[in-house]
Amino acid sequence: MQELTIRTTDGGETTLSTSELNTFVSGLKGSVTTQADPDYEKVRPVWNATAERMPAMFVHCVGEQDVQRTIRLVRERGLLLGVRGGGHNIAGNALANGGVVIDFSAQRGVEVDADKRHARVQPGALLQDVDRETQRYGLATPLGINSTTGVAGLTLGGGIGWLSRRFGLTVDNLHSVRMVTADGDAVRASENENAELFWAIRGGGGNFGVVTSFDFRLHPVGPEVVAGLIVHPADDIAALLQQYREVAEACPNELTVSVVLRKAPPLPFLDESVHGQLVVILAVCYTGAPGDAERALAPLRAIGKPHADVVGPAKFAEFQQMFDPLLTKGARNYWKTNNFASLEDGLLSELAIAAESLPGPECELFVVQLGGAVSLLPDDATAYMGRSAPFTMNAHARWQKPEEDDVYVRWAREVAKNTGRYASEGAYVNFMTQDESDRVRSAYGKNFERLATIKARVDPNNVFRVNQNVLPQVPDAQRAARTDDRRTSATGRDQSLEAPGTP
């Protein structure tokens, strides 16, 4: 290999010699791709095309030892590090621009223990990989809404999806993980082992280490559920959403009904005259007893006069893939998000205005119904913040041409601003874009200080910073105590002067 210039965490650059690189690569089970390799551009892209970053080196890790070896190199040389699981993150945080990327793209294995109802999942697995294996046994764990989403990133940010109202967040169903910390140690984290670290990774993102395997609890779901779409005309969006609000408030936990406001795609069950028209889509998933489905769905079906109602028996894994054609890799995407404690009339009016000003045919407003099992735990049960909010919104701008970036980004920001006056505390970090670093503290609310303290203990040098970053922070009382200890050492000397930069 040729010598390689790599970006460092202080904003500078350093060069790894050919000898250093060859020594590093020779100890890997996996392989390395650099910008000099002909397949670099096949390796580099992630889901969101606006993440136009150019890592200097991808390390395709195979197993825990490869991860340890990479982290030790990164730490010793002060290199900028990113970690890619499924590569679906809206902020593009899988890619460290000019830095090193630990790449798990090929590590997509899923092992199911049907008797114990557990699944062990590798860090590159997608939702579709987990569904494929767990649904063989009629089992599932709460994941997302798009089968091409990476399990690792989804989980570390909290994880919301079609099963959350019944079984909780993805992190509520995480039994344990194996991970490599900033000092290169491989550890297990669970409720009973490294419990503070386990608390932090359940919503705290990739701030605390690199997870090399996940162990999830599974629940009986499917293979068949009652699911599908009800597509309404957008004649009076606010009035329709008011009716939806009444139904949503009374939904059993087995029923999730989320809202999509967008231009109608050419779905085969819609008349051609509806294609391209603004519509209100109610996305429905019922996982309770099949005999109770009609009773549960009756209030929903009493709303308005839809263009189409295609809710019925469906394979759960297939329903998880329903939105895949609308969310394919390679488009330009920008999101903004807010949580809501209720769907106030003023908020519904703002959503209607935003829908009527969609800047393009691929854009949408997605209002996710939560509550149920998500809200049964207190906000400090895990790092994820916002359990009391029964709804979260994603203003999703999606387009194809770079020269149109400003138009689409401006629309999403305007939606967030206008709906923000109705927002409740917290924010779903998986919906936050790369320009929202100033929002991280408020997104975690009262959980932030605990996260920052844990960060200071396990990653004081902020090795894991290419994420929605929680900066290491020692609490004021602890910092004061440390200062007193230094000043009253056995020698009587002021040790704080001997260790500049020590917290």
Report on the architecture of this protein.
With 503 residues, the chain is of the alpha+beta class. The strands form five sheets. Strands 14, 15, 16, 17, 18, 19, 20 and 21 form an eight-stranded antiparallel sheet that branches. The protein has a five-stranded antiparallel sheet with strand order 7-8-12-10-11. A hairpin with a 4-residue loop joins strand 7 and strand 8. 48% of the residues are buried.
Any descriptors?
alpha+beta, Uridine Diphospho-n-acetylenolpyruvylglucosamine Reductase, domain 2, disordered C terminus, Vanillyl-alcohol Oxidase, Chain A, domain 3, single chain, 503 residues
Radius of gyration: 24 Å
- Strand count, sense and closure of the main sheet? 8 strands, antiparallel
Distance between the first and last residues' Cα = 40 Å
The structural class is alpha+beta
CATH fold field value of one domain: Vanillyl-alcohol Oxidase, Chain A, domain 3
From the spread of the alpha carbons, the general shape counts as globular
The number of distinct β-strands equals 21
**CATH architecture label name of one domain:** 3-Layer(aba) Sandwich
Q: Mean pLDDT, rounded to whole units?
A: 93
Oligomer: single chain
Number of helices: 15
Can you tell me the CATH class of one domain?
Alpha Beta
Percent of residues in helical segments? 25-40%
pLDDT < 50 runs, ≥5 residues: 480-503
The proportion of residues in beta strands is 15-25%
